[in-house]
Amino acid sequence: MKICTIDIGKGGGFAYLEKKLTNKYQVQVIKMPDTIVGIDQVIRSIPCDAFALEDVKIRPSDMLDGKIYRIVDVMIKNLHYLEAVLEVNKKPHFRLHPNRWQRQYRPQIKKLEYQDRKRFFKDEATRIFKHTKATLWNADALLMLNYMWGQWSQKSDWLRDKEREINVKLF
């Protein structure tokens, strides 16, 4: 499976497995560029068959006095930029909702504040990916990659549906 997971936040990034000459895989991470041109360059450089973007939607709790919180607005713009660049480059992609990949951590993160939750994800990514430096900017993408690897290894129906959706063989 050659899939790249993308944490779409301004402080997010890309994570994917890259096969080395020794036939072993190494996790690669790339920080989210600041511009759409930078995003295009990164996407063109990643040798993956498909891309999973963290989905984001505006919820009532994201509104304050009828205005969208700036961070949610930035994430939605990044999501649209990423999808546009993937479309232009004819790269198959789909959205991965945070509830799906965070489900396994729900008991631990349920009552955590945002910063504590981010630290928890960083610590969890460090535990799972021992040979990759997990940071606050790449932890979500790494845990999304771990989730996708689990779906792939279980040959899950959900991932089979995604294969049909994007018309790419992931198994």
Report on this structure.
The protein has one domain: Ribonuclease H-like superfamily/Ribonuclease H (Nucleotidyltransferase, domain 5), CATH 3.30.420. With 171 residues, the chain is α/β, with parallel strands linked by helices. Helix content is 46%, strand content 19%. It has helices at 36-45, 70-88, 98-102, 106-109, 114-128, 139-153, 157-166, and strands spanning 3-7, 13-19, 25-31, 50-54, 63-64, 67-68, 93-96. Helix 1 (36-45) crosses helix 2 and helix 5 packs across helix 6 (139-153). A five-stranded mixed sheet has the order 3-2-1-4-7, with helices on both faces. The protein has a two-stranded antiparallel sheet with strand order 5-6. A hairpin with a 5-residue loop joins strand 2 and strand 3 (25-31).
